[in-house]
Specification:
The protein is mainly alpha-helical. 76% of the residues lie in helices and 0% in strands.
Length: 224
């Protein structure tokens, strides 16, 4: 006589089969949602069928500077981009690159703003998307830069510096973090911050920023 009765074995197999089916269904649905979200991101940022007769341009086309010179056109494209990013996040919230792209575009859109309320809306959108991106991947450089720049655009330069200093301490030998740190110090604008920015010059990678810091250093020397 078997240790486990046949009805029990059948029930166990049935339960295991149901669990496997549920796991497979869950995986299929999640994969489909991820695929739709990733397709939306690729179309928004890169377009489709590039350099062919069937080309579909990206939502915000950075290859077309002349098109970006129209504030209304860019605002409409940025708003559509943000809508797509929110929908994609609902389907598959782990695509932090889409969130970063939306945050960056909202910041660019804020530079075109023709009213204070429009500017505030753009900055709020950038704050939201950058916060979500950093929450998903706190080590992604683009996400952290978008977060710092959004905070600075919102007038929270002190918060941006507080956010960035631990990054500088942790990744001291990465030149890009010093570029961003120097820019934030220049935005803060106090004498102490300007002096700290000048000290960053040997570690700054951006040539234009290095020249600016060099001129600033000479100016500060003259004021002593």
């Amino acid at each position: 006589m078997p240790l486990i009765p046949a009805p029990v074995r059948r029930n166990v197999r049935l339960v295991l089969g149901c669990l496997l089916f549920a796991a497979g269904l869950f995986g299929t649905i999640r994969s489909a949602r991820a695929a739709v979200a990733q397709y939306s991101y690729h179309r928004a940022k890169h377009g489709l069928f590039r350099d062919t007769s069937r080309e579909v341009p990206p939502v915000v086309d950075y290859r077309d500077p002349a098109g970006d010179s129209d504030p209304d056109r860019f605002a409409e494209a940025a708003a559509e981009l943000q809508r797509r990013a929110r929908r994609a996040a609902e389907l598959y919230p782990d695509n932090y690159y889409f969130l970063v792209f939306a945050a960056q575009s909202a910041l660019i859109q804020s530079s075109w703003a023709r009213s204070r309320s429009e500017f505030d809306d753009c900055v709020l959108a950038s704050l939201y998307f950058s916060r979500e991106a950093v929450a998903l991947n706190p080590y992604l450089t683009e996400a952290r830069e978008a977060r710092a720049e959004a905070l600075a655009a919102a007038g929270q330069v002190g918060d941006a510096l507080d956010f960035w200093r631990p990054i500088v301490e942790r990744e001291f030998w990465y030149p890009r973090v010093h570029d961003e740190y120097a820019r934030l110090l220049l935005l803060e604008g106090s004498r102490r911050s300007l002096e700290l920015a000048v000290r960053e010059k040997p570690l700054v990678q951006d040539p234009a920023l290095r020249r600016r810091l060099e001129r600033l250093g000479k100016s500060l020397e003259k004021r002593k």
